[in-house]
Amino acid sequence: TGISVTMHNQSAFDDESCMSTPLLEFEHTAVFKSYRMLYTEMLFAWSLPFTRLEILKKR
């Protein structure tokens, strides 16, 4: 079974320069960090320790 794939306009998807602006505002970093920590506490209370660890890893 000869299946071939031809990619067209692939360069339109590989360019990451469109993400030059951050999704979150830098001046609110402390607030976002506190939200993340509160969320991990909620995950622990909900008996989701592994999910909590995944969030804590991304500090």
UniProtKB/TrEMBL annotation:
It comes from the Eukaryota. This is Uncharacterized protein.
